[in-house]
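Progress report, Aim 2. The chain analyzed during this reporting quarter is listed below.
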Amino acid sequence: MDEFGPLNLQPHPGRQWAERGGKHKDPEREPRPRRRATYTRPHGVRHLLAAYDLGRDKLYGHIKETKTRSKFLEFCRYLRSLYPAGVRIAVVCDNFSPHLTTKRCQRVADWAEANNVEIAYTPTNSSWLNRIETQFTALRYFALNGTDHASHKEQGSMIRRYIIWRNKNAADERLRDLVNRANVA
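Predicted structure tokens for the chain:
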């Protein structure tokens, strides 16, 4: 599991999945709306907490306003609910502070021990070892590139629709090619 973000409301340049519009391609089609300039961020940011199940080839995600230890544990509880209690699950995380157990706060370690969960940490500066990073590359390409969302609700809807599509079409050739190119380990 890992966090993707910050997700802020700004135009995202780059290639996109959508077909180009305009009269030169299809006379019936309207041109794509022009991206707006954004100089301020009055709406704040959001963060996608996501997990990738290697065995099932499924992506799971929740969009949250903050990245805290409480939100991390909330998402871990959701992941635990996806499997029977007798099945031990392993969660691979980077060394971001809400994931770590510290002397002051043992909530993560206590919860993991009580719920048959093993939390494994990637070495410092080695986030590429976590297989979810390549899934974020695909998410950025399919759901965010070339977009200009007006609200966080609209952006969240696009991300949720992508995750649903991705889980139904895990064998899609374009998706596999993109993930394989991003996969370095």
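The chain is about 35% helix and 20% strand. The two ends are 17 Å apart (CA to CA). These observations will guide the mutagenesis work planned for the next reporting period.
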